Amino acid sequence: MSWLRPLIATGLLLCTMPAQSAEERSKLTMDSGRPLTPEQQAVEFDHADLRFRVIPDDKRLEGDATLTFLARSPVSRLVVDLDQQLAIGRIEIDGDVLPASAWRNPEGQLSIDLPRTLAAGESVRTRIVYAGQPREAKRAPWDGAFVWSKAPSGEPWIATSVQGEGCDLFWPCIDHPTGEPKVVEQHITVPAPLVAAGNGVLVGMQESDGWRTWHWKARSPNTYAVALNIGPYEELKGEYRSRFGNTIPLHFWHLKGREAQARGLFEEFPLALDFFEQTIGPYPFADEKMGVVETPHLGMEHQTINAYGNDYVKDEYGYDWLLHHEFAHEWFGNQLTNADWDDMWLHEGFGTYVQPLYLQWLRGDMEYLANLLKMRPGIANRFPVVSGKSQVVEQAYDDKTGPGQDLYLKGAWILHALRGLIGDEAFFTSVRRLVYGRDDPAPGNFQPRLAITREYIDIVNDVTDRDYTWFFDVYVYRAALPELVAERRGNVLALRWKTPDDLPFPLPVDIRIGGLDGRVVTVPMTAGQGSVELPPGMHYTLDPHSKLLRHLPHIEAYRVDAKARAEAKAKAKAEAEKASGEE
Predict the structure, then answer these.
(1) Do 67 and 172 meet the contact criterion of CB atoms below 8 Å apart?
(2) Could you report the per-residue pLDDT of 88-146, keeping only the tens digit for each?
(3) 3 state SS of 403
(4) Among candidates 200, 444, 241, 419, which has minimal Cα distance to 330?
């Protein structure tokens, strides 16, 4: 958050979606990532100049958006997404005001008739003036929209977080992962002396008549990564000298009175950058900044201005996992963006796996494996990580309709298993190529890119010069985990993989024969089967180094017991509250 679900004491993750009534939802608005209309496919989104006046006392937003599109093919109508809750006052095309009859906004999909058909290669500048009370989040970031809050010192503290519902909650956009504008400028007007921290680079700030206007400019931001963050902020600044020879500006906007805690977190910035640049590749937005802003919600990967609301808490591994996870999305989400929400594990699975990787880089193998083990009971296996068909965001994130938290946890474990299978050199080369589109990224020689899961499979196959499609067919495109069946037959231990739909699965298996000092044998598992000599009475250990992701009965038993205990606790609490009310 991405849409990060906090760990609970058991190591499971919360994965609940707040209920909303039909009256509160316009389906087109609240769904993000629906298929593009023909008109949206016919244009490139060149530039968005977004002017916002945020009025905290009224919880009101006044917007003035100028959008520039380039026609890929002839088009006579523009279609963008904008929440109906924001009333449109005027629309202009290339400076000329359109009559109200020339546009309509049913269900939050704004359709604008052009005065003439655009030919391929022509540009059009569309101005949309709108205002209203934007939707208010009930439980951000899981329930996205505006957060109208107060800082501890009493001033307004405001944030947007719209990954689940989309950019159209507060600005007219193409609400789809492929709808990134090439450039976004924000002019954010707020009551003085509030600060508006934004995406990209600060162009300037002007103050007049009790209002401040902050001007920010960013290149190719992910649509849901455009954000408003407003509050009584103070700023920490620094620089990081990259191993690639460039210098990266560091900025952290924190609330007044929290400088001591903020400085402690700020000190983690260079270490995180060094890890990512050494392990994955150059920071994608080094010419803008590494930016973090303290928010009244948990967090979100807003490009170059990551939202942070973890209250400066370090976990048992001694670092701030939230900062690290959201920062990971600068690579897996903002530099690399999934082309469809069905491929969201490319954001969340990779973004989650780099937390144990960081611990391995920082402190060694024990914390790497401990972190992965903590994730393991949370894997639900109810839906495939990737369905193979286009989805909107909530279909993927809601564990009642899609993989939900498996995007994070199972995704991370899939990558762990892949790394064990193909080795570090091939694994990290494949990740680098996925993120940058090349094996030799350096500042200035790559651009933000879109990808789908099938492209990553092709990359792995190309890097290894072998066909590992079978690996992804089982782990990614099927819900159930493979089961490793082991049977003693005289002096032989026979092994076979039992897979959903009896799919091929020649994943090698390590066996330790004997006690803790026993020898380790790798069984090739050609055609999904294999064997190893095992004297009668000899102890053996399957997968002694925990390389495999497989069905484990004790994990499933734990999940069933944990669920029953949680349900019993909730029932007892409800009954106690009912009894207390009756008294």
Answers:
(1) yes
(2) 999 999 999 999 999 999 889 999 999 999 999 999 999 999 999 999 999 899 888 99
(3) coil
(4) 200
Asked if 180 and 221 touch (Cβ cutoff 8 Å), the reply is: yes
Q: What is the pLDDT of residues 36-46, one digit of tens each?
A: 999 999 999 99
Instruction: Decide the pairing of beta strands 449-451 and 336-338.
Output: parallel
390 CB-side CA count, 13 A: 11
- Yes or no: say if 353 and 409 are a contact pair by the CB < 8 Å rule: no
> Phi then psi for 167, rounded to 5 degrees?
-60, -25
Tokens representing 186? 């924000």
Strands 43-55 vs 60-71: parallel, antiparallel or unpaired = antiparallel
Give the burial class of 251: count Cβ atoms within 10 A of its Cβ; 0-12 exposed, 13-18 middle, 19 or more buried.
buried
DSSP state letter for 574:
H
CA–CA–CA angle 401, 407, 411 (5° rounding)? 140
Phi/psi of residue 577, nearest 5 degrees: -65, -40
Give the Cβ contact number of residue 371 at 10 Å.
23
- Own/partner long-range contacts of 262-265 (Cβ < 8 Å, ≥24 apart): 262/234, 262/236, 262/294, 262/312, 263/236, 264/312, 265/292, 265/308, 265/312, 265/320, 265/323
The torsion angles phi and psi of 436, rounded to 5 degrees, stand at -110, -15
Residue type, position 258, single letter: R
Cβ within 8 Å of residue 512, ≥6 positions away: 518, 519, 520, 521, 540, 541, 544
- What's the pTM value of the predicted model, to 2 decimals? 0.93
Alpha-carbon gap, residue 204 to 229, rounded angstroms: 16
Q: How far apart are CA 256 and CA 258, in angstroms?
A: 6
